[in-house]
């Protein structure tokens, strides 16, 4: 396998459409992206899907036995199936044979496997899943975290989410001065529940977080914010709602296009515009969400992912590798410790 290309382990058995769609997306990634892919799973089955392309110099098949099913309890299943595809994929990163993992399988199992196999970044108490959402500003996305990793949060977790989101926004999304918001029910600092009020104080007190205040639900997609932080319970609901809105809008556009010859001509003329609309609104264009806080790059894809989503998830992982997101987050906390500049007002966290 190439020495200068990013190496990404892909859980070929995870997801509703595995392994066919996973293999197809991974194969496309090796052809169009500067990546080498380690496909983890049932080798005979993967080889039959790949045919002669199984011998690609940028593709490696890694054997695994079993998969964590969606109805299984993650920790129990991971221990009972040590050779399951997600476990093997995480081990490849731990062994430095790969730089990232992509999985569209059981999200809870992927997070648990990452924590068990890779551990957390020093200074991070809990991981967060960060998802990119489109905004009303063309070409601009907002990263929301957490969207499902930690349902019950403490204020300091939200502070850490804000730091990791800021790093990603600055170095991957290329935002010079990211604007961080705390998802809340009002703009005033006194609004919200106890978690929101205490988190607001921490975020405002941390000089290294470009915090500009609370963000209401209507502000999330406005483009005013670059990073939105919230607990995983609220974030997951927000993510699923945003995905549904995108799907509804795309369906409305399709239904409202004229029918017959007139419709065909109109659609042909509007095709570039329709393509851009889809790219801005379709969650499949991002491929998945990044698991922040673990000592390795891990992208969690949608369970229903098809080949294009897997391709984009691999591209998502490649961007995190190329922009050294992991190293930059580690650097933030190592510098913070060396300088002795631990965030003030920790006592308010309880």
Q: Indicate how many domains the architecture comprises.
A: 2
What separation lies between the terminal Cα atoms?
50 Å
- Radius of gyration from CA coordinates: 21 Å
The 3D shape can be described as globular
Largest sheet: 11 strands, mixed
Annotation field: number of helices: 11
Q: Could you name the CATH class of the largest domain?
A: Alpha Beta
Order of helices and strands, N to C?
A: EHEHEHHEHEEHEHEEHHEEHH
Structural class estimated from helices and strands: alpha/beta
Low-confidence stretches: 337-350
Reading side by side through the largest sheet, how are the strands ordered? 3-2-1-4-11-10-5-6-9-7-8
Architecture per CATH nomenclature, i.e. the level-2 architecture of the largest domain: 3-Layer(aba) Sandwich
**Strand share of the residues?**
15-25%
The CATH H-level superfamily of the largest domain is: Isopropylmalate Dehydrogenase
**pLDDT averaged over residues:** 87
List keywords for this structure.
350 residues; alpha/beta; Isopropylmalate Dehydrogenase; 2 domains; 11 helices; 11 strands; 45% helix; 16% strand; globular; disordered C terminus
Overview of the structural elements:
It is found in: Cytoplasm. The protein is an alpha/beta fold and 350 residues long. It folds into 2 domains: 1-124 and 293-350, Isopropylmalate Dehydrogenase (3-Layer(aba) Sandwich), CATH 3.40.718.10; 132-286, Isopropylmalate Dehydrogenase. It is built from 11 helices and 11 strands. Strands 3-2-1-4-11-10-5-6-9-7-8 form an 11-stranded mixed beta sheet, with helices on both faces. The termini are far apart.
């Amino acid at each position: 396998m190439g020495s200068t290309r990013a190496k990404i382990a892909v859980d070929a058995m995870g997801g509703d459409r595995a392994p066919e769609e996973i293999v197809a997306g991974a194969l496309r990634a090796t052809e169009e992206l500067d990546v080498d892919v380690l496909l983890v799973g049932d080798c005979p089955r993967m080889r039959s899907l790949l045919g002669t392309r199984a011998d690609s110099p940028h593709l490696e098949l890694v054997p695994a036995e079993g998969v964590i099913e969606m109805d299984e309890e993650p920790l129990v299943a991971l221990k009972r199936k040590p050779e399951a595809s997600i476990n093997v994929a995480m081990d490849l990163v731990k062994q430095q044979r790969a730089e990232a993992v992509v999985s569209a399988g059981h999200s809870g199992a992927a997070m648990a496997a990452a924590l068990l196999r890779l551990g957390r970044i020093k200074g991070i108490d809990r991981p967060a899943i960060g998802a990119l959402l489109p905004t009303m500003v063309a070409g601009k996305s907002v990263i929301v975290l957490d969207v499902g990793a930690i349902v019950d949060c403490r204020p300091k977790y939200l502070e850490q989410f804000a730091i990791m989101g800021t790093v990603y926004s600055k170095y991957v999304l290329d935002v010079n001065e990211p604007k961080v918001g705390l998802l809340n029910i009002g703009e005033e600092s006194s609004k919200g529940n106890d978690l929101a009020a205490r988190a607001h104080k921490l975020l405002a007190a941390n000089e290294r977080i470009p915090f500009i205040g609370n963000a209401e639900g209507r502000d999330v997609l406005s483009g005013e914010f670059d990073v939105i932080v919230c607990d995983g319970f609220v974030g997951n609901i927000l993510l699923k709602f945003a995905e549904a809105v995108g799907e509804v809008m795309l369906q409305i556009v399709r239904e409202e296009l004229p029918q017959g010859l007139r419709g065909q001509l109109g659609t042909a003329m509007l095709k570039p515009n329709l393509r851009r609309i889809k790219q801005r609104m379709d969650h499949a264009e991002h491929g998945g969400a990044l698991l922040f806080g673990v000592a390795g790059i891990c992208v969690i894809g949608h369970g229903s992912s098809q080949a294009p989503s897997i391709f984009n998830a691999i591209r998502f992982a490649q961007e995190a590798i190329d922009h050294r997101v992991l190293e930059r987050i580690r650097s933030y906390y190592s510098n913070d410790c060396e300088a002795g500049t631990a965030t003030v007002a920790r006592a308010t966290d309880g």
